[in-house]
Every structure is written in structure tokens, then in C-alpha cells.
């Protein structure tokens, strides 16, 4: 059974989609805790309604990025996670934090990376006139919004799209690809090869288990 810790900053709809999939399907995993850097994050109520431990580590309580990241790292480590999932966690992480969780830190970003790293991705996609937009699940590296890509979802950009309609279309796909990526991780089916992530077939994984 793999332990997952999910970090949020707000609404937490991606966190909810992962929790619901774990509840509905038999994954070899449990969400050990949901941690927010904001005490008023709406997603915290969902976590407690679902019997999941939650904690707040507020960046406002720390003088600098390094001391906040260290406190956050310690709060996460208390749950002995196999995987840490950033689900709308709106903080830039220090290299020390990223190194500590290397290979077990996933993020979802609302664009087809490497296009549009950073903020306001939907607005920037509309401004750039792209015909397709989407979302990316990737392993986190010290490079902001870069790292080996696990899953991507593509949506069309329609002529009358606004930031709201486009972000809603992308978010719907985020709720599909993030649980799928997390499930592949907990099933041990992801292999990072440099910049690339290979997904092992289910049968290969079963064969490995038999041989182990
Ligand atoms: C999601 O769209 C996620 O991709 C984005 O924040 C939103 C969080 O929504 N993340 C980033 O922009 C990270 N760079 P949620 O709280 O409802 O999951």
C-alpha cells in the first residue's frame, strides 16, 4: 500500500478527483494527508469529510522560502509518503525541497508544456492564438513547470472561447489525467528515462511481481 500526500492551495478539485478514484477503484494506495499553505483552502473541508488527515503550513509564518520549504518537507515526511502530489499548490519550490522528493513528486500544470509555463496559461493561450491547449502531469524538477512528462490532455481552442470556457474545458481533462498518472505511479508502472517517462504495460508489471 503506497502513501500519498497531496498539497493544495485552494479549491482542490484535482485532489478531489484523485481521492474519489481511490475510493471507487481498488488502488494499492491511500491518501495519508492533504496539506495546504493556506488555512482557508476550500479543499481542506473535503479532506476532513473524507476522513483524511489535513494540515496547514502557512508560508506567512516563515521569514523566507527556504525555512517554509523545510517546515513543509518535515510536515510531509511525518506521513512517510511514497508519492507527493502537487494539486494546485501555488508555490515555487526550492531546489532542496525538489531534490528531497526527486522521483516521487508530481505536478499538474494547465498547459501543454513546454508551452506556457507559469501563471495565466489560458489567457496566454488565447492571446497566442493556439488552436490546441491542454494540461500536463509531470515529475517536478528544480526548473519551474518543467520535468519528465507523464500524461498530457489536448483540448481544442474554439473561436468564441473566453478564459472561463477554455479553463473549464481543460480542468475537465485534468480530472481524467491526474488520477490516471497517480495510479500508474502507485502501480509502479512509470520509469523515468532522462526527460522521458515510459509507461510499463500492466502485464509487464505483473510479470515483474511474479519474478520478484
Ligand atoms: C488547476 O488548473 C491546476 O492545473 C493549476 O491550478 C488549478 C488548481 O485547481 N495549477 C497550476 O497552475 C500550477 N502551476 P484545483 O485546486 O481545483 O485542483
Quick recap:
38% of the residues lie in helices and 25% in strands. By secondary structure, the chain is an alpha/beta fold.
Describe this structure in words.
The chain has a single domain, classed as Formyl transferase, N-terminal domain (Rossmann fold, 3-Layer(aba) Sandwich). The longest helix has 24 residues, at 163-186. The relative contact order is 0.14. By secondary structure, the protein is α/β, with parallel strands linked by helices. α1 packs across α6 (163-186). Helix content is 38%, strand content 25%. Glycinamide ribonucleotide binds at residues 8, 10-14, 87-88, 108-110, 135, 171, 174.
Based on CA atoms alone, the radius of gyration comes out at 17 Å
Strand order of the largest sheet: 3-2-1-4-5-6-7
User: DSSP strand (E) fraction?
Assistant: 15-25%
- N to C succession of SSEs: EHEHEHEHEHEEHEEH
Q: What ligands can be seen in this structure?
A: glycinamide ribonucleotide
- The CATH class is Alpha Beta
Count of DSSP strands: 9
Number of structural domains: 1
Give the proportion of residues in helices. 25-40%
The CATH superfamily is known as Formyl transferase, N-terminal domain
CATH architecture name: 3-Layer(aba) Sandwich
Largest β sheet strand count, sense and barrel closure: 7 strands, mixed
Task: Determine the N-to-C terminus distance.
Answer: 17 Å
Instruction: Please tell me what the overall shape is.
Output: globular
CATH topology descriptor: Rossmann fold
Number of helices: 7
The average pLDDT is 95
Low-confidence stretches: none
What structural category do the secondary elements indicate? alpha/beta
